[in-house]
Structures are given as structure tokens and as C-alpha cells.
């Protein structure tokens, strides 16, 4: 399905000077999928320099003239969706339904920034120090070369949702995808070049995080990172040494609240859809469900019914509701969390076992109750199809328990009353809160920033912040008449008095 010729063409895009390779896995079979080139730290340095050279020209292109490249990319994404899905499924093992949502996300990003970027990046007139006498403008200058580091779980969406605004803002980009999911990312990079992106502006390097990722963090002018909180901390420390900026999109242990006035059927269906998206390997997926006691029994019954109806399959069509976990490592984490919970007294309401007959890394959607703080899955991110349900007495208890985590990425609230849902949402410490949905509508509302509070991140993607973070603001102020140096003939004391008088007048008139 993925031809050798295609692999060779895509791998040509990787900045790698030796013939060293990595093997990637076909997740549905466990066999070898492809051999992808291995970059060295020297290749990273060269890639950054090449991107820098191309960036110096790109920065001189007017923002409005950059946009058509991304409009053409949008059209190419729509045209090639099925080919991208084939690669994405083979590399991640996700269901085609989940893949479709993933490939759609960058379409929203392109549409949003194509409309908003020219205005957001245009020079803005600001109030000068003194009206009429000082002219001040704020300019947005590209950072230079942005290093983008992405994980394996949503490799296509996360790469392009982040590099598109970086490129539109006038930067070059060096992208380091996770090795296992390099091909689908390279397919998108190839489409960007087909769409007319200037050669060299977007570079791809592949290699182990601590080697190639570190080399990128040590050379780029800004780091956009998505991955685990542990790696995020290391990157922040290194970037801090060089005083370069960064944004970090990290892990979560997301709560989903079913309030007493929820539409219980809608909550059960919505919870299944969000908890088991990409087999729970979604940073925004809820792993903790807090259900009001008045609707607890009804919710649990309906939720279990929906879970048991899910179709698990290694299928390259839209028949499967859930696919595979992506790796042996992820499967081992899931087994460890479930077995630990079981051994310490948790009840497994459904699931709780691997399904090797479907594929090497398949695991059933699993629902636990009686989970207590000693258990690993209580407050550690499982990143798999495992959720725990807790009964709560009222909204106060639900909010307190939802917030009792070091993470703060996403939360969901189900209630028939929008006002009630919004009231509870405002008390949750999470960068995104979805009402009557799990994770889709906030992600798709690209006009609003999203990201993590607490250990879930620093900075935001989407919205104005998701674009402006790739720029430096520059204040250009013009003194139209000499103000800051008094004439020689004027005693300085008189100058002080006249300036103070002026400041008083300005304050009284409330113009500054
Ligand atoms: P990870 O931190 O192990 O790896 C992420 C990327 O960083 C990979 O490309 C990896 O090669 C690279 N890397 C690893 N060590 C590095 C280092 N020392 N320096 C530079 N780069 C390094 O994370 P993962 O296991 O691949 O991804 C899963 C995690 O990502 C989960 O915690 C999940 O919640 C989180 N995630 C967050 C978001 C979000 O938007 N907040 C989205 C997806 C995934």
C-alpha cells in the first residue's frame, strides 16, 4: 500500500548525511514498515543554517503573499486525505475515523490563519509617549528558525497545526517528528513544497530525542514542543540557558464531569467518543469520570452499553471504532496500570485485557471503579483506553476532585443547562473546558487559544497567541520634536518643572 518509491521520495526530504537508518513498525502487523534516515547533530546544525538562509528571503515576502502557499496546501490536503490516512494508520494503528479527524485539524488551522494572519501581523499604531509629538508603532518580527518537536500520537495534526502559523509568521522551521511517525509527517511536508513553499524553508530531521531533539533545542531561535511533561521540563531548562523562547504542550489527566442535570445518554455517548479516541492516546482524553450520584447508576449502565458495542479492528476503512495502541511500550504501560489497579482492589467493569488476535498492541477499552490514590492510574497519565469512574455528591466535590491533579490540560462538563455547565467550567483549572463535548469543539475553535495550565504546558496554540508566539514584538518610536534633551539655555530645574506640569496636565485630561 505504501510503495518503496514513495518511501524513497519522502525520505529524500530528510536532512541526513549518512546512510544510517531506523526501522519503523507497521503497527497493525508488528512487521517492518519502512527504513527512515537517521540525522546526526551536525545534520541538525546544517538544517538550521539552510532554513535560516531561506528564511531571510521569506521574511521579506508580504504576509498576504505568503498565504496562497497555504491555501494550495489546504486543497492538496483534501485531495490526498486517503493516502495520508493509509500511512497514518500503518504508523500509529489508529482507526480511520480517528485518522480522519486528525487530518482535518490542519485544514482548520490554515483557514483560520489565512484570514486572520495579515491583520494580526500588520504593524500596529500605538499611543506615543506624548500625543502628536511621539509616533510609536509595534512591529511583529519573525523569530528566525523555529524548532518544532512532535510526538507519535497525533503526528500529522500536531506538526502542521504548529508549523503553519510559524511559517506564515515569516519563520523557517526545522521539524523533528517522532521516528515511528516520520512518514506521514514527511508526506505533509512534501505537499507543502508542492504547494509552493520556498525550497529549504522547512527542514526535517529524524533521530532519538535526547540526541537530535537536544541538538535542535540547542540551535533553533524558538522551540515549539509537544510531548511528555518530563521532556518538556528538560527542554525548558536547556532553552532557558540560551534565553530562547518556547511553548510546551504537555500531558494531562483530564476529568469529565457528569452533573445532576446532564442528558445522561448524551454524556455516555460523548464520553465513549472522547475517552477512547485513538485508544485513549490523546492528550485531551478524559481518564477520570466524576458522576453525580443522582445519575450515577444510569450513566454507568449506558456508558458500559456503549463501550461494549465498540468495534475494535485493524481496518483500513471506516468500520472500526477503535484501533490499536501504537507501541509495545504503550501496551506495557496500560497493562501495568490495569494490573496494578486490579491487584489493589479496583473493579474492572469491562475490558481489562489485551487482544493479540487483532494485532500485537490491541487492548480493550477498559472501565474501572473503586480506584484509590495508591493505584498508579489514579493520578498518573495512562495514555491508553482506561478510565476510572467516581461517584460524587455534588458539584463542589466534583470540582475539587477534578482539580486535584498536577495537570491542567482539558476538562469536560455535561449538563443540560449551558449556564450551569459554564458556571462549573469556570471553576476548573484546565486550559480548555468542553461543555457537552469531550475535546473536538475547543480544538476546532481555532480563533481561541488552547493549551495547558499547571504541569500541562507553557504557552498556547491557536488564536492570536498561537501565531504571535512565533514573533518578537518590536517597538519603533519616533521623537518628532526634541523632548528628551532640554535646550542648553534652560536651567534643568525649570525643565523638570515644565515636564512635571505637562505630566500633570496629561493625567488630568486622561489622555495617557
Ligand atoms: P516524549 O516527550 O517522549 O517525546 C515527544 C517528542 O520529543 C519526540 O519527538 C521525542 O523524540 C522528542 N524528545 C524526547 N526526548 C527529548 C529531549 N530530551 N530533547 C528533545 N526532544 C526530545 O513524549 P511521547 O511519549 O512521544 O508523547 C506522549 C506525551 O505527549 C503524552 O504525555 C501526551 O499527553 C503528550 N501530548 C501532549 C499534547 C498536547 O497538545 N498537550 C499532544 C499530544 C501529546
UniProtKB/TrEMBL annotation:
<dbReference type="InterPro" id="IPR016163">
    <property type="entry name" value="Ald_DH_C"/>
</dbReference>
<dbReference type="GO" id="GO:0016620">
    <property type="term" value="F:oxidoreductase activity, acting on the aldehyde or oxo group of donors, NAD or NADP as acceptor"/>
</dbReference>
<dbReference type="InterPro" id="IPR016162">
    <property type="entry name" value="Ald_DH_N"/>
</dbReference>
<feature type="active site">
    <location>
        <position position="249"/>
    </location>
</feature>
<dbReference type="InterPro" id="IPR015590">
    <property type="entry name" value="Aldehyde_DH_dom"/>
</dbReference>
<dbReference type="InterPro" id="IPR029510">
    <property type="entry name" value="Ald_DH_CS_GLU"/>
</dbReference>
<comment type="similarity">
    <text>Belongs to the aldehyde dehydrogenase family.</text>
</comment>
<keyword id="KW-0560">Oxidoreductase</keyword>
<dbReference type="Pfam" id="PF00171">
    <property type="entry name" value="Aldedh"/>
</dbReference>
<protein>
    <submittedName>
        <fullName>Succinate-semialdehyde dehydrogenase / glutarate-semialdehyde dehydrogenase</fullName>
    </submittedName>
</protein>
<dbReference type="InterPro" id="IPR016161">
    <property type="entry name" value="Ald_DH/histidinol_DH"/>
</dbReference>
<feature type="domain" description="Aldehyde dehydrogenase">
    <location>
        <begin position="17"/>
        <end position="475"/>
    </location>
</feature>
